[in-house]
Amino acid sequence: MEKHEILSMKNCHRAATVQQIANPEYGVWKFEWRGQKLGGNAFYTEYAHIASKPCFGNATVISDNDNDMKFWEVLTWKYETNMAELWEAARRAFSATSFDPEKRAAQYIREYEKLLLDDLKEIPQDEQGQYIAKFKEWVATLFAKHSRIMSAAITGPARFPTERNRKANNSYESAVAEFQSWRERVQAAAARRIEAAKPQEQKTAEAWERVKEDIDRFVDWNLCSTNLYNRLETIARKGEVELMQRAIDYVRELNKGRKRPIYTERHKFFKLAELAAAIRGRRAVTAEKTDKDVPFDGGIVRYNFAEDRLQILFNEKPDAGMIGTLKHSGFRWSPRFGAWQRQLTRNAEDTAKHLLNIKLR
Predict the structure, then answer these.
(1) How far is CA 225 from the centre of its chain?
(2) What is the DSSP letter of 205?
(3) Which of 34, 175, 294, 333 could connect to 47 by a Cys-Cys bridge, CB 3.0–4.6 Å?
(4) Inter-residue long-range contacts of 243-251, CB under 8 Å, 24+ positions, other chains counted
């Protein structure tokens, strides 16, 4: 006989169907987590769960505690990926800050599982196993750090270690921020890989749909034509010749049915395809150049001609002040190159010279 897991606080949110342990002949019951609201106030709501057999009209209320749930076992789950192995770590995490650490543990386990499942929608299938493992490592770290935090209401005010508790709080908050940063970096990198793996025809079709939506939105909402032009010029400056020509053709077609044209034929909008072609030509020439490195005290400035980027590579991670200055100056961190970079322009050179107090030419 197949052995099933007993229904409990740590798994009931995932249960889809259950059966009575003592009476398996009663068959399969549909399980509704928090299917009944019992009451509460502005700060707390109490729920019970429902086990039902719709075809017979039978339903059983199961209270939200292990003493009531232990008479049921789970047959199927809503989802398989879970953090049940972190239950004890979660309970310990709130033992000094909550009067009911089990419920707090269950809450955080549920929230982290939901966060993980949402993240996996953006992660390629072959990378999900690694992501799940690292995600759980982070959650274990967060639980461990939170377990060092105390509440005077729980532990008592006598000799309460205020300073140590402040440091524990700061350490936990810092870890939460690092965890969020890690998630964003991994998802952004995965999105880039997914985008890079798309066939060029698909990329072109998707890019055109975005441009067409912008133009249609302008027409439908009667938006400012200058804002539309600025958006399209940005795309043209990336060398998207074919995209700009399609936009021009589309606007000309729309103009035929309008009393007032979106742009007149004299408008600079109709020169965007030429602008894109000129920029593409310049980049083709630039891409053939050999990368150039300019050393400075603490790293190098790299002219990455193939990527059309000016990159700053530090020997050591810059301090928070420098990172803030780099971001304010238009430089963005590239995990792929391990560099702070922005588009290779004269303005970028002038900014780097000012930031680093060096000569580049």
Answers:
(1) 33
(2) H
(3) 34
(4) 243/204, 243/207, 243/208, 243/211, 243/276, 244/272, 244/273, 244/275, 244/276, 245/273, 246/208, 246/211, 247/211, 247/212, 247/215, 247/272, 248/272, 248/273, 250/212, 250/215, 251/215
- ∠ at Cα 308 (302, 310), nearest 5°? 30
* HEC profile of 160-173: CCHHHHHHHHHHHH
Q: Do the beta carbons of residue 71 and residue 21 sit within 8 Å?
A: yes
Residues 241-254: b if buried by 16+ CB within 10 A, e if exposed: bebbebbbebbeeb
Residue 154 and residue 97 in contact, taking contact as beta carbons nearer than 8 Å:
yes
Contacts with 70 (C-beta within 8 Å, 6 or more apart), sequence order: 6, 7, 8
Predicted pLDDT of residue 2: 64
Q: Would you say 19 and 29 are in contact if contact means Cβ atoms under 8 Å apart?
A: yes
Helices assigned H by DSSP within the chain: 66-69, 87-93, 101-120, 128-146, 152-155, 162-197, 200-221, 225-236, 241-255, 272-287, 320-328, 346-356
Low-confidence stretches of the chain (pLDDT beneath 50): none
Residue 85 near residue 25 (C-beta atoms within 8 A): no
The reply to whether the predicted model has a pTM over 0.90 is no
Any bridge partners for residue 31, and if so which? Answer: 51
For 323-344, what is each residue's pLDDT tens digit? 999 999 999 999 889 999 999 9
